[in-house]
């Protein structure tokens, strides 16, 4: 089994604290604002953390329109992905007991993360590594949570997965 930075609640953290604001913005049809709320809440972008919403929301709206007009035919537009973030947050909220339950996992497990990822993701991997008897940890230097995405460094993530699964096969 392999996990890449699962956003699990650890030490009282709430990785889905942004859900209420996101849901309000979605109900109001403010999709760019909702995406900024997700990005700021998950801390996926350091740039979005420092820029004010008055700047980031119009930029996100522009980026979404530009992407929709230029995306390859087989690409899923960001506008279609934004509504799925609610379900992601629901899964996170339902994972409160996962660290404790992971102690029963006997499978060889790769815990994979990036050195530039938010602290709460590193803490989740730390807790899993402590709890899981057959866990191995790999940290990819210089990348963050979005490394596995096509715009990140998916080749590095794939190489780590390939190395792990060829060893455990």
Provide a descriptive summary of the structure in words.
The protein is mainly α and 169 residues long. It folds into 2 domains: 2-12 and 97-168, Alpha/Beta hydrolase fold, catalytic domain (Rossmann fold); 19-92, no CATH class. It has 9 helices and 3 strands, in the order βαααααααβαβα. The chain has helices spanning 19-27, 31-42, 46-50, 53-70, 78-81, 85-93, 98-101, 119-131, 154-168; strands spanning 2-4, 109-114, 135-140. The chain has a 3-stranded parallel beta sheet with strand order 1-2-3, with helices on both faces. β2, α8 and β3 (135-140) form a beta-alpha-beta unit. The longest helix has 18 residues, at 53-70. The mean pLDDT is 91.
Amino-to-carboxy terminus distance: 11 Å
**Strands side by side in the biggest sheet:** 1-2-3
As residue ranges, the low-confidence spans are none
Give the CATH class of the largest domain. Answer: Alpha Beta
Tally the helices: what do you get?
9
Give the topology string: H per helix, E per strand.
Answer: EHHHHHHHEHEH
CATH superfamily caption of the largest domain: Alpha/Beta hydrolase fold, catalytic domain
- How many structural domains does the protein architecture include? 2
Oligomer: single chain
Mean pLDDT: 91
Helix content: 40-55%
Radius of gyration, in Å, reads 17 Å
Strand content: 5-15%
Query: What shape does the CA trace take?
Result: globular
Number of strands: 3
CATH architecture grouping of the largest domain: 3-Layer(aba) Sandwich
What structural category do the secondary elements indicate?
mainly alpha
CATH fold annotation of the largest domain: Rossmann fold
Described by strand count, sense and barrel closure, the largest sheet is: 3 strands, parallel
């Amino acid at each position: 089994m392999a996990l890449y930075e699962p956003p699990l609640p650890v030490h009282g953290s709430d990785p889905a604290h942004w859900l209420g604001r996101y849901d309000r913005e979605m109900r109001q049809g403010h999709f760019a604002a909702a995406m900024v709320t997700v990005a700021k809440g998950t801390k996926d972008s350091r740039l979005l953390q420092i820029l004010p919403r008055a700047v980031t929301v119009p930029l996100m709206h522009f980026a979404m329109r530009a992407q929709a007009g230029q995306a390859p035919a087989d690409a899923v537009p960001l506008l279609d992905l934004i509504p799925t973030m609610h379900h992601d947050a629901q899964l996170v909220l339902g994972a409160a007991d996962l660290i404790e339950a992971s102690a029963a996992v006997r499978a060889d497990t790769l815990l994979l993360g990036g050195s530039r990822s938010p602290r709460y993701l590193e803490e989740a991997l730390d807790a899993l590594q402590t709890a899981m008897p057959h866990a191995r940890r790999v940290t990819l230097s210089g990348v963050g949570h979005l490394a596995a995405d096509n715009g990140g460094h998916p080749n590095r993530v794939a190489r780590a997965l390939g190395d792990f699964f060829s060893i455990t096969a």
